[in-house]
């Protein structure tokens, strides 16, 4: 852990009275935000009586009083990782449903998702598939060839499969938030590169490692030519799950070889700044990313590791962080099974992901996936037929599902560049705290119990008194 004293914090602490001219402190909007005498409250309850709803009464901060209630102490001089954002996977199917909305309805929905104004939820991070995921209607890559043909120099590489739906929707999103971070993940290489010649399963043939590295380079360059910057890629979605369609088996020693001898050098030769993330699978196998990071030749090209939580426990992210504290960790996927169970989905996902992942060093949290229809379509033959989107879209009609509210509680206020700060965890009240670039403090609290609970939030010698019913989530902003 680090102990940092930023100029803005010294100003807020009152050092300005003695050192104002030296520090350049002023009565700026940043300081005004942090000095607020009360906290806004945004609430979601398991009975849906409040759905990410701003409460009419702010919580005043006053002098601490003797209390039997639990106390959450927020300490902003103890800092951890910087946050990149919160959001969803924009699957090909999600883009299909968004694109097929009427222009006015789509524009309103995208503003609600990606703006921070009013009741918009401020999604700040997206994951897209490099080629098809299992939530596309058909399987494709950007270099599909007739059987028996190969293209090692990527001369026939083309983004054409994404031009109808994904690219137009992404470009519309970028007009709302030009700084949104985008992560690209492949489900499968082109089938001609694979040992089984099939979109499902198989491994990458060693003779095509170099060609596949060029495929990544071409993808990043082609997206950039469309005005879409890919901030990071993962080498392979779920490399230990070759049973999906599409999918690829990629063992850790093979991923290490690919990164250090092909992908990393190819990115370097092309002067790409896109981050390389390894693993992108469940937290029950921390040995996979750690073994790759233990290889210094591979490690030099790697920004960090990506995780899902269909197996293992969220605390394992800290194990990977502690093994290589100079490398980042990311949380890139978690689905909710249709038809959903709002109270249980809300509690589990907020506790494990929105709170648990950042408390274990994650720079982002992404839910799978943004949108589907009432039958969870489209999906590939053999793909996920039970993945409940954050949105169910039928024409211009939109239903907001659990993942919409789960992400909203973090995305709207914990903006990119925010820093996680220290807070204790009283029993039954998992929480996480952040300091934003605008100088606001954000604390997200879950009442993990079944009955209503009152508690205090204490910061810089002042205390606010809050109450959450059992299973409810509150985001507190001051």
The tally of strands reads: 22
Q: How does the helix and strand content classify structurally?
A: alpha/beta
Q: How big a fraction of the residues is strand?
A: 25-35%
The biggest sheet amounts to:
11 strands, mixed
User: Distance between the terminal alpha carbons, to the nearest Å?
Assistant: 24 Å
Helicity, as a percent range? 25-40%
What does the average pLDDT come to?
A: 93
From the spread of the alpha carbons, the general shape counts as globular
Count of helical stretches: 12
Low-confidence sequence ranges: 1-34
> What Rg do the Cα atoms give?
23 Å
Description of the molecule:
With 478 residues, the chain is α/β, with parallel strands linked by helices. Helix content is 28%, strand content 25%. Strands 1, 2, 3, 4, 5, 17, 18, 19, 20, 21 and 22 form an eleven-stranded mixed beta sheet that branches. An eight-stranded parallel barrel has the order 6-7-8-9-10-11-12-13, surrounded by five helices. The longest helix is centred in the middle third of the chain and has 18 residues, at 252-269. The radius of gyration is 23 Å and the shape is globular. The model is unreliable at 1-34 (pLDDT under 50).
């Amino acid at each position: 852990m680090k102990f940092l004293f930023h100029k803005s914090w010294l100003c807020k602490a009152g050092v300005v009275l003695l050192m104002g001219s030296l520090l350049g402190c002023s009565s700026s909007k940043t300081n005004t935000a942090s000095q607020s005498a009360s906290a806004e409250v945004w609430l979601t309850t398991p009975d849906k009586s409040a759905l990410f709803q701003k409460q009419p009464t702010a919580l005043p901060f006053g002098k601490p009083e003797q209390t039997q209630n639990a106390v959450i102490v927020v300490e902003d001089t103890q800092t951890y990782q910087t946050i990149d954002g919160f959001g969803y996977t924009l699957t090909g199917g999600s883009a299909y449903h968004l694109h097929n909305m009427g222009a006015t309805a789509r524009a309103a929905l995208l503003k609600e998702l990606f703006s921070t104004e009013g009741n918009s939820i401020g999604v700040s991070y997206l994951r897209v598939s490099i080629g098809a995921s299992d939530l596309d209607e058909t399987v494709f890559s950007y270099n599909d060839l007739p059987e028996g043909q190969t293209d090692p120099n990527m001369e026939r590489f083309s983004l054409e499969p994404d031009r109808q739906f994904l690219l137009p929707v992404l470009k519309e999103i970028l007009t709302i938030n030009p700084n949104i971070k985008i992560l690209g993940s492949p489900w499968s290489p082109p089938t001609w590169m694979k040992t089984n010649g099939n979109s499902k399963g198989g491994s990458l043939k060693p003779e095509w490692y170099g060609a596949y590295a060029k495929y990544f380079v071409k993808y990043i360059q082609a997206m950039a030519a469309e005005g879409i910057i890919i901030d990071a890629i993962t080498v392979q979605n779920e490399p230990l799950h070759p049973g999906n369609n599409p999918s690829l088996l990629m063992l850790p020693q093979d991923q290490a070889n690919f990164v250090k001898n092909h992908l990393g050098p190819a990115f370097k030769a092309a002067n790409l700044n896109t981050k390389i993330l390894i693993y992108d699978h469940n937290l029950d196998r921390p040995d996979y990313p750690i073994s790759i990071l233990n290889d210094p030749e591979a490690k030099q090209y790697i920004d960090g590791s990506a995780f899902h939580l269909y197996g293992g426990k969220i605390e394992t992210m800290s194990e990977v962080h502690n093994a290589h504290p100079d490398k980042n960790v990311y949380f890139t996927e978690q689905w909710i099974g249709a038809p959903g169970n709002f109270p249980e989905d809300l509690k589990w996902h907020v506790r494990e992901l929105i709170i648990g992942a950042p408390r274990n060093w994650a720079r982002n949290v992404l839910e799978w996936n943004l949108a589907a229809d009432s039958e969870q379509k489209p999906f590939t033959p053999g793909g996920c037929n039970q993945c409940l989107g954050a949105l169910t879209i039928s024409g211009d009609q939109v239903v907001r599902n659990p993942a919409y509210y789960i992400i909203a509680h973090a995305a709207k206020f914990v903006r990119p560049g925010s820093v996680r700060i220290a807070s204790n965890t009283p029993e039954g009240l998992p929480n996480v705290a952040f300091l934003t670039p605008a100088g606001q403090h954000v604390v997200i609290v879950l009442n993990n119990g079944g009955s209503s609970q009152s508690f205090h939030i204490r910061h810089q010698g002042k205390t606010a008194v809050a109450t959450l019913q059992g299973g409810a989530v509150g985001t507190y902003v001051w």
